[in-house]
Structures are given as C-alpha cells and as structure tokens.
C-alpha cells in the first residue's frame, strides 16, 4: 500500500460543506487533514508500526472526545483518564465511551478489535504481519472497512487485503471521532436539578 485508500472528509446532508464554515468546522477540517497526512506517512511503514501508531491515534482521539463530554477535572492530573486512572487505558476508554453513549455499537466493535491487534503487535515477537491467519481473520471482522469496501464497486479483490481493511477502519474511525467531538455537548451536572430537600434528617430524641 503506497497510497491512502481514501481521504476522510466531512459533509452535510447535501454532500457539501456549508458556504460559511464555523470555527468548529475549520478545526474539524484541520483535524481530518492531519489524519490524512499522518496515515500517508504510516502507510510506508511495517505492519507493526501501522498497528501501533494507528491505535495510538485512535486512543488520543477517543480521549479527546471523552474530555469534551465529561465534566472537566479542575486539578492537574485527571484521576479518571490519566495513565493511572481507571479509564487510563485504551480498552477502558473504549468501554467508557460505549457505556456513556458516545460510541455506537459498530465503533465499539471495531475499536476493540483494533486495540487487540495493536496490543499483540506492540508486545509480540518480531515477524508479525497482518497477513497471518489470526490477524487477517480479525481484519475481516472490521465492520467499518466493509462499509468502505461497499462504496468501491470497481475495486479488485487483490486491492482488499488485511492491511487495507485495517487502515480503512482506523481512518474511518478517526474521522468519526473527530466529527463526534464537534457535535457532542458537555455532560450536564444532574445534581443542579436535584432537590436536596428530598432527604431530611430528624434529630434523635433526647432521653432526658
């Protein structure tokens, strides 16, 4: 693979960006272009480098989405999302994003597979590649790359290999996470609508 299978983009229902882009739209287009450039560089690397770096990119984008949605932490080191926090790993962030409703089932499904592949390549022995049966099978299970493939009716079977499926799913997910971050609203502080008078404490009667 010497070229990106497609360039991620964002459009409205008419398939075109609005004539007047907002600041969020400008930031989104910059983020998508950065993903495109990064992926172009990664494509020239080995399968191990692709798996690890694309996984790192998705982890970073998911963390940014969570930070946009969750009530912000006022201190310096976030006890939730930092490396030592209970959502400090990619796998934990995937589950948290899914459970709070930020990730639809297909994103959740593919992110788990990508994380598994990334972990295996990051900690495995030399000589691993995506064409090996285990990883080829996992790549064939990626739903977002299948959606991408359905839009390429003229593609040849030889063009759709495990590397293409893996990279396609990673780039599609990266674009989705960037777009989702511009759409999501901050989680509301539920307690602001709570009546603290709902619970009363009576003083104990004195025995005297």
Task: Please write out the topology.
Elements: H1 23-42, H2 47-69, H3 90-99, H4 105-123, H5 133-140, H6 143-150, H7 162-183
Helix pairs in contact: 1-7, 2-3, 2-4, 2-7, 3-4, 4-7, 5-7, 6-7
Helix count, DSSP H or I runs of 4 or more residues: 7
Question: Which radius of gyration do the C-alpha atoms yield?
Answer: 22 Å
- According to DSSP, the number of beta strands is 0
Percent of residues in helices: 40-55%
Largest sheet: none
Mean pLDDT: 79
Query: Which class do the helix and strand fractions yield?
Result: mainly alpha
> What portion of residues belong to β-strands?
under 5%
Uncertain segments are 1-8, 10-21
Report how far apart the termini are: 87 Å
General form: elongated
Secondary-structure element order, as H and E?
HHHHHHH
What does this structure look like?
The protein has 208 residues and is an all-alpha fold. It has helices at residues 23-42, 47-69, 90-99, 105-123, 133-140, 143-150, 162-183. The longest helix has 23 residues, at 47-69. Helices cover 53% and strands 0% of the residues. The model is unreliable at 1-8 and 10-21 (pLDDT under 50).
């Amino acid at each position: 693979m010497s070229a990106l299978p497609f360039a991620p983009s964002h459009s409205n229902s008419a398939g075109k960006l609005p004539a007047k882009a907002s600041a969020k739209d400008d930031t989104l287009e910059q983020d998508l272009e950065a993903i495109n450039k990064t992926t172009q560089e990664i494509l020239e690397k080995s399968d191990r480098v692709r798996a690890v770096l694309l996984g790192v990119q998705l982890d970073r984008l998911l963390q940014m989405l969570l930070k946009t949605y969750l009530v912000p932490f006022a201190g310096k080191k976030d006890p939730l999302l930092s490396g030592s926090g209970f959502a400090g790993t990619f796998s934990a962030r995937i589950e948290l994003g899914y459970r709070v409703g930020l990730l639809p089932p297909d994103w959740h499904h593919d992110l788990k597979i990508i994380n598994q592949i990334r972990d295996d390549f990051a900690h495995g022995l030399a000589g691993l590649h995506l064409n090996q049966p285990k990883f080829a099978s996992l790549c064939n299970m990626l739903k977002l790359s299948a959606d991408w493939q359905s839009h390429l009716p003229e593609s040849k079977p030889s063009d759709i290999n495990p590397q293409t499926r893996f990279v396609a799913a990673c780039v599609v997910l990266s674009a989705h996470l960037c777009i989702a971050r511009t759409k999501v609203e901050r989680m509301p502080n539920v307690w602001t609508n709570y009546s603290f008078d709902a619970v009363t404490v009576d003083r104990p009667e004195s025995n005297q």
